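2024-03-11 09:14:02 INFO queue: dequeued item Isoniazid inductible gene protein IniC, len=515
2024-03-11 09:14:02 INFO validating residues
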Amino acid sequence: MTGSELRERARAAFATAAAALGTGEPLRPVREALAGHRVRLDAPMPVALVGRVSSGKSTLANAMLGGELAPTGVEELTFNVNWLQYGARRELTVHFRGDRRPERRDAAELAELTVRARDGDVERQRLLKAIDYLVITDPNPYLKAFDLVDTPGLDSVFHNDSQNTLRFLGRTGDEVRAASEAQASKADALVVVFARGLAANEEELLADFVGPGFGGSGPITTIAALTKVELAWPQHPDPMAEGRHLAERVMASAGARRVLYDVRPVASLVGAAAATFTEDEFGSLVELSTMDAESLERRLRRGPYFATREYDDVPVPPQRRAPLLRRFGQYGIALATGLLRDGVADPASLRAELTARSGMTEFKRLLVDHFGNRADLIKVRGMLDHVYQLRDSLADRLPPRDRMTLLDAVGPLLSLDHNEHAFKELDVLRHYYDGELTFTEEDAADLLRVTGEHGTGLAARLGLPPGATREELAAAARERLGGWAERDLDPAYAGRSRRAVQILRRSYERLVGTI
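2024-03-11 09:14:37 INFO prediction written
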């Protein structure tokens, strides 16, 4: 079944359920939830970026979107949630707490609405304290696939600069964490942002994301980015390789695979710079690339001095080096100039190479492969679960007649839930990620493929190239069906594993029937 078919069936089930609820006040929360879900069916999948303060969430958002949509800065704290959506024009809308109506603002004000402590600015303090979240629309093509939700940090103990900001706002660290968790709960998927060096060990990195605020997340809907790997340079000549080693250690730590699908290292500052550097900055990089690589790296190792000191052997003056260092960082400059020496000749080619070398090309592909291909299924599954939670929380407090009305109204949703084979496949995936299936590597690869890990088209689900003929599709489907039919007779598969085998056998029966 395609995503559009599932959306139509869900829309019909929600409409039938809403009509059955009537107009009584006790059931209003369920009616409102169903109405909201019907609207969300056609909206892009919200993906929330969650992590500690200074983990690089905003820089990662900019690298993913190829622009400068989310404010960044070492002295800034993303206190207010920034919800990035696709729109025909760049616009900013401020949503307030309480009954105050949203206000359209000039998009240039976004940086001003990113919190910085300024003593004595009472009017601005009052405004910032009243904000619930910001919506930024932009004609960026990637936002057609995903809404990105850039959340505040999760730290329970803040650094001094952040403490000053929170005192200025009259808010506590717990409130910042609560804001992140509240917005993450509205998202269909999470990107957990770990920053290299912000934790003593891998277990501490994971600790933020196994608490009650993220109890509904798991490998199907949660991917991690290990950011700021560029800071491993110059101690490690290849910081991406060092990042991959750390990511492997995170995934090998206790409990990681029950929370995360995977951890991918990204040099997010380099990825963001790839999309945003100017023609003048490209010219400065070209000039720097005329230097001997060893001499340039020796100067880059001086860190902030590279942006302020006069060096006779550096052909670019400090006033032009400073913006380069802010945008690219030390490793980014070394990488970009190295690519130019190796023959990269124009800005477009440099952008493409830097994006790939930063890990962003691979990371963005992972988002699409892992949960983007299942976006409609994940969204509808979350909507159904939300309605069931509402039903369970309200049922015991309702008068008998309203309780019966509610239980009857949920009937069409239960039918949708029970009759859609894709939801059964999703359950198998959850059991697999929880380590509850006795599947071989071959079994697991087939499970991921047929459930849409690499695409939801027939060829992708069968592991064939896009141009496969109908005969090739049919032959592959029959072969796989035969393999799972044999597994269904194998006594080595028992309990939950046998049920999983039966569901996957049915998956291939359905594929054979559609060819």
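2024-03-11 09:14:37 INFO annotate: The beta strands are 45-51, 81-86, 91-96, 103-105, 131-138, 146-153, 189-195, 222-227, 263-265.
2024-03-11 09:14:38 INFO item closed
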